[in-house]
Amino acid sequence: MKTLDIYEELKSNSYPGRGIIIGKSADGKSAVTAYFIMGRSVNSRNRVFTETADGIKTEAADPSKLSDPHLIIYSPVRKLGNKTIVTNGDQTDTIYELMDKQQTFEQSLRTREYEDDAPNYTPRISGIMHVESGSYNYAMSILKSADGDPTCCERFTFTYTNPADGVGHFIHTYMGDGSPLPSFEGEPKKINIPNCIEEFTNGLWEALNEDNKVSLFVRYIDIATGEEKTKVVNKYTK
Questions:
Q1: Is the peptide bond before 119 cis (omega within 30 degrees of 0)?
Q2: How many CB atoms lie within 10 A of CB 4?
Q3: Of 97, 99, 143, 210, whose Cβ has the fewest other Cβ atoms within 10 Å?
Q4: Residue 133: how many other CB atoms lie within 10 Å
Q5: pTM of this structure
Q6: How far apart are CA 20 and CA 139, in angstroms?
Q7: How far apart are CA 218 and CA 43, in angstroms?
Q8: What pLDDT was estimated at residue 81?
Q9: Which CA distances in Å does 57 have to 10, 65, 220?
């Protein structure tokens, strides 16, 4: 698979929607993830990421402008032991709760489908990172309608064991802007990941469309020690 420049990939798409990146830093020392949200409506743009005890949550930047919390207020990132869950919706909680009951990532997601936002039927994208005793692997998932047909839910899971240094994978909700919005197609895109969290955070934020970007989360986890570094960027403030 061709390795893409993630910054150029983002610059070329004014509306990739919500996106998840998971991979490993170039020096092989860090497990890396990033999650961003974008918005076209006032309600969707009226959000910030705030840190919680086990991850982050979305909140209204201005509660007086929040017209519909459905599908926009949720916890994108939660930790379950040595696992980090990253998703674009409230399926984060589904994965957390069912994996805590010894079900697998894939089994947990079989209880969910794409979002109920006809006519877009936005895909649910999810990822899970497992860092333990110097080892690291991850998986990514997408649940989507069959080319806009809501009677069929297509389920794809991609697993990455002993991932290569400097390599990551990027999955997002939309191929681009449109009406209805065209769902992501294919397997996660292969990208490069740098060593520096500041460099990666700044590069991603600058590459996202200025009008539509809302918030960005980036985390680097030391594979040997489990130590975490986190960056959160919000366009809007509370």
A1: yes
A2: 15
A3: 210
A4: 9
A5: 0.97
A6: 11
A7: 24
A8: 96
A9: 23, 18, 18
Rounded to whole angstroms, the Cα distance separating 7 from 4 reads 9
Query: Phi/psi of residue 52, each to 5°?
Result: -120, 180
Show the CA angle centred on residue 72, arms to residues 130 and 67, nearest 5°. 165
The full DSSP string for 45-60 is HSEEEEE-SSEEEEEE
Q: How far apart are the first and last CA of the chain?
A: 42
Token pair 């895109």: residue: 189
Q: Which residues lie below 8 Å from residue 153, measured CB to CB, with a gap of 6+?
A: 113, 114, 143, 144, 145, 146
User: Sign of the C-alpha dihedral, residues 108, 113, 114, 116?
Assistant: negative
Residues 4-46: tens digit of each pLDDT: 999 999 999 999 999 999 999 999 999 999 999 999 999 999 9
The residue to which tokens 């009677």 are assigned: 151
Place of tokens 């333990």: 132
DSSP element (H, E) containing 215: strand 213-222
Using an 8 Å Cβ cutoff, are 24 and 142 in contact? no
Distance CA 48, CA 108 (A): 27
